Amino acid sequence: MSQQRVPSAADGLSLKVLRLSRPSLSYQTCLPHPTPNNSLHISPKAGLSYPGDNQDDQFILSPLLTLPPSFGSAYVGETFSCTLSANNELPTSSSSRKINSINISAEMQTPSQTVPLDLIAHPSTSPAPLAPGESVQRIVRFDLKEEGRHILAVRVNFSETLMVEGNGEGGTAASGGRTRTFRKLYQFEAGSCLNVRTKVTDISKVKGTQPIHVALEAQLEHVGESAIVLESVTMSPNPPFTSTSLNSHYNLTDSPPSSSKQDRLQTLHPRDIMQVAFLLTQQTPNADGNEAMRKDIAKEKVVVLGHLNISWRSAMGDKGVLTTGLLTLRRN
Predict the structure, then answer these.
(1) pLDDT digits (tens, 9 = 90+) for 179-221
(2) Are 83 and 42 in contact, with CB atoms under 8 Å apart?
(3) The pTM is what?
(4) 3-class secondary structure for the chain?
(5) For residues 52 and 36, what is the distance between their CA atoms, to the nearest angstrom?
(6) Tens of pLDDT, residues 225-271
């Protein structure tokens, strides 16, 4: 995460921002076990990402996981999480100054607005003095809903108390203090994980029926950097329409998958494309009191059908949710 340069440590207090993300699977090379015919005598542990003699054999995934080497990618629909850590950088031998009453606040600047952020682990103010080497930490979570540049602005307020030796009694006493403030900006880009293209076809004319029947086709293209698993693709119809999924060969509903081979989750690799379809049907007259709404729809040239809801998870379980804009049907 890039940041704006500011004066160093605000004369005793520094701020670090660390992104919270799940580990990833590490690439490893399988080596054969030593045999009498193997004269190299290379230990199989040499192929592990973190070879050592103190591996936990009860947790087989421990040598297979690695921490992200960089900031990584941020996608629309996912939740951005990070830790804000205000650290007391004064030497442990320093007794002339004390830092207390630390208050951390943050806001996210998106391409369209500025949103104040709630900090987890309240209260955000620490009234007790912060000893040298200690830190005050807060966690920030923000749902990414827009593409483009995002700026995390963090402001830290704290009190600095000057200490002097007591009047022959030993120890120290406060001789004065001041309130200090500094601000840092952290910048990152949010991109798309899925591109959604839709096609709406009025098939009521073909069938010759009075209620409106609409076929909705959607093409989902994975434009991210790593594979994802689609959990659900559902249609939220606008009254007086009802929706029927035509994707029976995949488990793309909110219900858990069954044991059937035809009812399975769909994995999308980068650049993969998947087609889904729904049938939207206008309800019959007088059903749920929609007669007046049906007459209004008959007069309109643009009919609002509803929107698509898509959810997925990354390889390590990070959840993403995407909701399209309102889908419409133009009638001649």
Answers:
(1) 889 999 999 999 999 999 999 998 876 554 567 889 999 999 9
(2) no
(3) 0.75
(4) CEECCCCHHHHCEEEEEEECCCCEECCCCCCCCCCCCCCCCCCHHHHCCCCCCCCCCCCCCHHHEECCCCCCCEECCEEEEEEEEEEECCCCCCCCEEEEEEEEEEEEECCCCEEECCEECCCCEECCCECCCCEEEEEEEEECCCCEEEEEEEEEEEEEEEEEECCCCCCEEEEEEEEEEEEEEEEEEEECCEEEEEEEEECHHHHCCCCCEEEEEEEEEECCCCCEEEEEEEEEECCCEEEEECCCCCCCCCCCCCCCCCCCCEEECCCCEEEEEEEEEECCCCHHHCHHHHHHHHHCCEEEEEEEEEEEEECCCCEEEEECCCEEEECC
(5) 23
(6) 889 999 999 999 998 899 999 987 666 665 554 444 444 678 999 99
Token pair in block for residue 292: 């007046």
For the cut 60, the answer to whether the pLDDT of residue 95 exceeds it is yes
Burial class (CB within 10 angstroms; exposed 0-12, middle 13-18, buried 19+) of 8: exposed
pLDDT at 5: 39
Res 114 pLDDT > 80: yes
Reported as half-sphere exposure (CB side, CA atoms, 13 A), residue 82 has a value of 25
